[in-house]
Specification:
Blueprint (H helix, E strand, L loop, with lengths): L2 H11 L6 H9 L5 H16 L2 E12 L23 E2 L2 H13 L4 E6 L6 H18 L2 E5 L5 H10 L3 E3 L6 H7 L5 H13 L3 E3 L2 E3 L5 H14 L3 E6 L16 H14 L4 E4 L3 H5 L5 H4 L4 E3 L1 E4 L2 E4 L1 H10 L3 E3 L2
Parallel strand pairs: 1-3, 1-10, 1-13, 3-4, 4-5, 5-6, 7-8, 8-9, 9-10
Antiparallel strand pairs: 1-2, 11-12
Bound molecules: iron/sulfur cluster.
Iron/sulfur cluster binds next to loops.
Length: 327
């Protein structure tokens, strides 16, 4: 075992956070330290989360037709993909999906909208819908509706929303290479507004979009500073028609290494394996927990890319001796 990794791990297990220098050291390690990194990340996960794994589901209540130009996204109306046009689900379709998620034993139901933000009309709709899902169906409701201000966040909180999903996507420095239709500050301000309104924060990013390790560290440090409680990690599945269509995908070991490194930086924060998990990890699915993951998004489809059946994920968690967290 690499002695410096063990020392940093011990510090974390004793309740302290690693500093930037220690984090940079961990990122500098080569593949020969892969096993040590994962072993220690697993220890950190066990110490702070035990055997519990949060399983979330997500439904795109508004899919596609987005005015924004995020280069990785199939939902931008500016790219020639199957999601160029907007598709909106009815209340009944959303309630039905929530009922199905509950029946499968899932704890969190996430409603997400494509687009830069939401209108007043949509906010009023959500204020009626969220309490129905939460109280009548009995499942926690999370949501991501784009850039919002404090007043909008407060209204969502009052309606019963548990967590707001708003990703930083990448570092401040790399963001301008990926998105030009809105700025990084509007993302950070949305996260702060949601936090101030008392919402939990589901804030992470997407990897494999040309970012460097420095970008990955910068984003993780900002996430730490913002007091996020759940960090979705998405791994690019290049979509035909988008500017990143020909980007090489991340290899399974690289993804697992990155999950482990995020576990070191954010020891007490849920790390969620999200988009691209199934496509990019292939047969190494179950390793995500050993790398430090404490949450997954489950379901046949993850927005515009392939997902995995809830039954398969729940069985995987059980087979590993872990426990899916039920309401
Ligand atoms: S990531 Fe969100 S804001 Fe960006 S293009 Fe896709 S749906 Fe629109």
């Amino acid at each position: 075992m690499n002695r410096r990794i063990s020392k940093i791990t011990e510090k974390i297990l004793n309740g302290h956070l690693p500093d930037r220098q220690e984090i940079e050291y961990l990122f500098s390690l080569g593949d020969e330290n892969f096993d040590d990194l994962l072993y220690c990340a697993n220890q950190i996960r066990e110490k702070f989360f035990g055997k519990k794994i949060k399983v979330c589901s997500i439904i795109p209540a508004r899919l596609g037709g987005c005015s924004q130009d995020c280069k990785f996204c199939a939902q931008s109306a500016g790219y020639d993909t199957a999601y160029k046009d907007v598709k909106t689900l009815s209340d009944e379709e959303i309630l039905d999906a929530a009922r199905k998620a509950k029946e499968k034993g899932l704890t969190n139901f996430g409603i997400v909208y494509s687009g830069k933000t939401i209108s007043e009309k949509e906010l009023i709709r959500l204020e009626k819908l969220i309490p129905k899902i939460k109280n009548e169906i009995g499942i926690n409701v999370c949501g991501g509706f784009g850039i919002i201000n404090y007043e909008q966040a407060l209204r969502l909180k009052k309606a019963g929303l548990s967590r707001y999903n708003h990703n930083l996507e990448t570092s401040r420095n790399h963001f301008k290479n990926i998105v030009t239709t809105h700025d990084y500050d509007s993302r950070v301000e949305t996260v702060k507004a949601a936090k101030k309104a008392g919402l939990g924060l589901c804030t992470g990013g997407i990897f494999g979009i040309g970012e460097t390790d420095k970008d990955r560290i910068d984003m993780a440090m900002l996430i730490r500073e913002l007091g996020v409680d759940m960090v979705p990690m998405n791994f690019l599945s290049p979509i035909k028609g988008t500017p990143l269509a020909d980007t090489p995908v991340m290899q399974p070991r690289e993804i697992l290494r990155l999950i482990a490194l995020y576990r070191f930086i954010l020891p007490k924060v849920h790390i969620k394996a999200a988009g691209g998990r199934v496509l990019n990890l292939r047969d190494m699915q179950s390793w995500i927990f050993y790398a430090g993951t404490t949450s997954i998004i489950s379901g046949d489809k993850y927005l515009t890319t392939a997902g995995r059946a809830v039954e398969d994920d729940l069985r995987m968690i059980k087979d590993l001796g872990l426990e899916a967290e039920l309401v």
